[in-house]
Specification:
It is built from 6 helices and 4 strands; from the N terminus they run ααααββαββα. It is mainly α.
């Protein structure tokens, strides 16, 4: 599956946003605890065109995160399409060509002056819509480790990825299974 740079960046931002709820240490359950944390998220994902962030942005981005989670967890393509249609429409999607920050011409879907949540909803919603249209919605996954639940997009050629990270969750489960087999063989 061929995914351009912008779509990949938007998908990565959506996944990272979803995982701010999963990765957070208990009992807080949320890595987006304040406007400063939201600013770090924006910086880490090189989200362009973002003005000064405020408490309203934090609330709006957390709400958007829940909407993206519903898309990832949708039981059917029609349900995901309905969710994405609403998300993109409410974001005021306005496709426009740009060549900022040393990147060649590409399309932004958010309107100039859009809030951070509108920006993420437009670009992220369109990236998810591209997957849906390509018949690739099943690539939106949750980690197969029972104690994880992180989101990821399976971009493997044969759609076989089961864990958010093979070096952590995947390796941990494989080692546990190996040890269980060894214990069973010793009986």
């Amino acid at each position: 599956m061929l995914i351009n740079h912008d779509t990949r960046c938007a998908l990565d931002a959506v996944v990272a946003l979803l995982n701010t709820a999963v990765d957070a240490p208990a009992p807080a359950g949320d890595a987006l605890t304040d406007v400063a944390a939201l600013g770090v998220f924006v910086e880490q994902h090189a989200i362009s065109g973002v003005g000064e962030l405020g408490e309203g942005d934090l609330v709006a981005v957390r709400a958007l995160r829940e909407r993206f989670a519903r898309v990832f967890d949708a039981g059917a393509v029609a349900e995901a399409a309905e969710l994405l249609n609403a998300l993109v429409a409410e974001a005021g999607t306005t496709p426009r060509l740009t060549d900022h920050d040393g990147y060649d011409w590409h399309v932004h879907y958010f309107a100039p002056g859009a809030s951070l949540a509108e920006h993420l909803a437009a670009d992220g919603g369109m990236a998810l819509a591209f997957l849906l249209v390509a018949g690739e919605l099943e690539r939106l996954r949750r980690c197969g480790a029972p104690d994880c639940g992180r989101a990821f997009v399976d971009l493997s050629r044969n759609r076989s990825r089961r864990y958010c990270d093979g070096r952590t969750c995947g390796n941990r489960l494989h080692v546990a299974a190996y040890r269980a087999r060894r214990r069973g063989a010793g009986d």
